[in-house]
Amino acid sequence: MNVAWLGEVDYREALGVQLDFLARRAAREIPDTLLLLTHPTVYTLGRTGNAANLLLSETELAQAGISLERVARGGDITWHGPGQLVGYPIVLMSRPDLHRYLRAIEAALIEAVARFGLACEREEGLTGVWAGGRKIASIGVGVKRWVTYHGFALNVSNDLAGFRKIHLCGLKGREATSMAEILGATPAMAPVREAVASACRRHLAGFADA
Amino acid sequence: MLIDVVMPQLGESVIEGTVVKWLVKPGDAVAKDQALLEISTDKVDAEIPSPVAGVVAGLVAKEGEVVPIKAVIARIETEAPAASPSIVPPVAPAETTGWDEAHEGMPSWISRKGEAAPPIPPAPQHVQAVPGGDGRPSFFPAPASGARLRITPVVARMAAEHALDLSKMTGTGIDGRVTKADVERFLAEESAEMPAEPTVPVHAAPPAQVAPAGLASDDQVIPFSPIRKKIAERMVRSKQTSPHVHAVAEIDMHRIMAFRDARKAEGTTLTVLPFVLAAAVRALAEFPALNAWVVGESLVLKKAVHLGVAVETERGLMVPVVRDAQTLSLAEISRTVDELAARAREKKITPDELNGGTFSVSNPGPRGNLFGTPIINQPQVGILRMGQIVKRPVVAEVEGADSIVIRPMMYLVLGYDHRVVDGVTGNGFLFRVREILEQGLTS
């Protein structure tokens, strides 16, 4: 799996990049690729999501200069912004076992944050990675031509206020946390990026030939 | 024959899926692998490709309906027998979930082997040749000629391990076969040319064709944004289209600066840019050949002066247009430019405000250096580029005697299209702009 660090990319632009990579992956021109990046502040809503889970009005959003993007991924509403590491694995599935894929992303993220001394876990029936009952990473995936796009967002050092304006992933009463909040210190993005990249290389390998 | 399309099982633990949206309707012709519909399970949205080529005979499941796996969701009429052995060779070893290739559109490597269609049909030999026959994707493209690669299992394994494109190698074996010795020689030459990299198993990190060789792990890859692509394309096109000639004028800006300082004392802040724009508009009236477009093999002289003003934004260069500048006063030009630049930076500019310029001015600002050679904004034929304004000692006539005085000086460069603008016209225009600025503009 190749890994590309894109820096901060506008949400719509990043979607275009993903679709470029997806088309080339579907055509077998490139290997599986993990795109790592951060987004400027944005709320995104999965197609099956409910806009009522956003607790801000359109006017409040506009005033804050934040957009709400409706996207063709699974999952409900979430927030992206600076300090959050976003990963878009472009992975070809020769046998679409998408739940195994979701679990593999979770495993990769749990392993990556463990390197920083954080113990995180899955919660039965709830996709994502949790730390002490609070959500540290969100996952939402899309598939076209049996190639995955969209992916995961790991809260590294971002402001968590953005999550308080939504029912996180459509779950009322659930809160978000970040690596910085738990560690009591802000980890640098670069080593987190490296840890996530190497864990993804291990856990997301081999879906094409399963 | 009529083929049933069933709700695919998207995971061992998945028992149903929601039909989100049909992308085809009855009667539509569909290609194999064309997206038929979007389905959704928790956390995953998937587009389901058509397992076969044919015509949509009917949609069984409705949008919004929750359908159990293996239930029929659509029917497709194919012209040829879908499961003809010549098209779909036997599927890979049966797996526990009992995947049904013909009905569920599984993108198995195996089913692609026999297809002649693009994009990259690996020759069957590749698979047979890979020891273990695991059907792992190989990243060597098919030879351009369509000729099949003839290789031995040993060569195939070496190619997979080193991620080599065998079609680019010269074979010395029978019928041009690539032999083990060829691969070894190729690898030896390559390692002599390239910095050593640890050999990695192909399934862990095959080489990217997106990333040119020599990328270090801490290199940052920045894909072109849409606006960057557009800028790149326009720059290249302009340089290829027009033979650019550049003329440079040195202009004494002391009258402009004095007027500007006086207005500043009154509370109105003006930049130098609108003065240059206003001077350009006046000079263009005398040199109409520079307020023009090249269309095909014609020069189109434009009556109205629509000035493109280059603005740096965080997304890249944008050139909003001051319309009918010949009807605007200095103050109106100044106000319009400020508004347009602010809208460009706030991303609120409309495409209409970026189109239709007849002449351009680029102002790189206080850090614009001595001068630069601007690229013409096609299909226009001329562009002015301002340098920074610097105080210099210059020789001027003061009360009838030559004196050395301190003056704010600016280099102004005109780039023009030498296909349609001759030197006498280009130089004459720039000289006229200089005269207007040195005489001073106040309205």
Provide structural commentary.
The complex is a heterodimer of chains A (210) and B (443). Chain A contains 5 helices and 10 strands; from the N terminus they run βαββαβββαββββαα. With 210 residues, chain A is of the alpha+beta class. Chain A has a single domain (2-203), classed as Bira Bifunctional Protein, Domain 2 (BirA Bifunctional Protein, domain 2), CATH 3.30.930.10. The relative contact order of chain A is 0.20. Chain B is α+β, with helices and mostly antiparallel strands. Chain B has 3 domains: 2-117, OB fold (Dihydrolipoamide Acetyltransferase, E2P), CATH 2.40.50; 142-214, E3-binding domain (Dihydrolipoamide Transferase); 228-439, Chloramphenicol acetyltransferase-like domain (Chloramphenicol Acetyltransferase). In chain B, 26% of the residues lie in helices and 25% in strands. In chain B, strands 9, 12, 13, 14, 15, 16 and 17 form a 7-stranded mixed sheet that branches. In chain B, strands 1-8-6-3 form a 4-stranded antiparallel sheet. A 4-stranded antiparallel sheet of chain B has the order 5-4-2-7, with no helix packed on it. In chain B, strand 12 and strand 13 form a beta hairpin. Chain B is elongated and about 100 Å long. Chains A and B meet through strand 1, helix 1, helix 3 and strand 9 of A and strand 4 and strand 5 of B. Strand 9 (134-144) of chain A pairs parallel with strand 5 (44-49) of chain B.
CATH architect. name of the largest domain in chain B: 2-Layer Sandwich
Order of the strands making up the biggest sheet of chain A: 1-2-6-10-9-8-7
Assigned CATH architecture of chain A? 2-Layer Sandwich
User: How would you name the CATH homologous superfamily of chain A?
Assistant: Bira Bifunctional Protein, Domain 2
Over all CA atoms, what is the radius of gyration of chain A?
16 Å
CATH class assignment of chain A:
Alpha Beta
CATH class of the largest domain in chain B: Alpha Beta
Q: Could you say what the CATH topology of the largest domain in chain B is called?
A: Chloramphenicol Acetyltransferase
Which ranges of chain A are low-confidence, i.e. pLDDT below 50, for 5 or more consecutive residues? Answer: none
Strand content of chain A: 25-35%
Number of helices of chain A: 5
CATH topology of chain A: BirA Bifunctional Protein, domain 2
Average predicted local confidence, pLDDT of chain B: 76
